[in-house]
Amino acid sequence: MSKLNSDIIAEGAFYRKKLLLSMIIPGIFVFLMWLVKIIEVLFEIDLSRFGIYPMTARGLPGILFSPFIHANFTHLFNNSIPLFFLSLALFYFYSEVALKVFIWTFFLTGLFVWIAGRAAWHIGASGLVYGLASYLFFSGIIRRYFRLIALSLLIVFLYGSMVWGLFPGVYKNVSWESHMLGFFSGVVLAVWYRNQGPQKPVYEWMEEDDGGEEEGETGEIGDGDEDTRGVRNLET
């Protein structure tokens, strides 16, 4: 077997392994979402009161639990697919910072909803979905790396219609605040981590003298007792 063929096989094995590793955390997260809903159905319980209720102590734990709680299986299914694939893209293309971005998107979105959301129970993972989509889109643009820009354009092609979820009144009983604040979290994190993770490559021809530069110089191309009974749930 030639060295070229050996290199191609080794490279293919590397990227397959990377893809499988990138599926672990998204797969576990989506599995937990489905497990929670199955437990609700089997034991005939309603866990929506573990969602986020803004500016109350009883709604504070929802920052941690709300992404795992869904109104029904349709709601769950609609969040599971984009969450899995967006998370997979994050861990595959931004492996160096993926875990930090995922965790911060999770907590920032929940915290912002707790601070600025309407007086209702906010449940569901779509705030996280919007945050990941926003990060993947803006991070590629900010880094000006053609491969990541291609990913940004793919996000627009697949999930561009999500933009309507950012506006109030478009969808009934939907937490547009979670969508908007998740989107905002993604923008913040794209800017914050712009100098970490994959960067635009610098080619040798970009480092050549540019007339006015001296030889050898190169340019550098980074509370809680409020009565909330009877209040509707808002799906995210």
Structural notes for this entry:
This protein has a single domain, classed as Rhomboid-like (Rhomboid-like fold, Up-down Bundle), CATH 1.20.1540. About 8% of the residues have low confidence. The protein is globular and about 65 Å long. The longest helix is centred in the middle third of the chain and has 21 residues. It has eight helices and two strands, in the order αααααβαααβ. Strands 1-2 form a two-stranded parallel ribbon. The N and C termini lie far apart (54 Å). It is mainly α and 236 residues long. Helix 1 runs antiparallel to helix 4 and helix 6 packs antiparallel against helix 7.
Brief digest:
The protein is mainly α and 236 residues long. The chain is built from 8 helices and 2 strands.
For the record, give the distance between the C-alpha atoms at the N and C termini, rounded to a whole number: 54 Å
Task: Please work out how many helical segments DSSP would assign.
Answer: 8
Kindly provide the radius of gyration, computed on alpha-carbon positions and rounded to a whole number of angstroms. 21 Å
SSE pattern, N- to C-terminal: HHHHHEHHHE
Q: Tell me the CATH architecture.
A: Up-down Bundle
Quaternary arrangement of the chains shown?
single chain
Assign the CATH class.
Answer: Mainly Alpha
Unreliable stretches, pLDDT < 50, 5 or more residues? 212-229
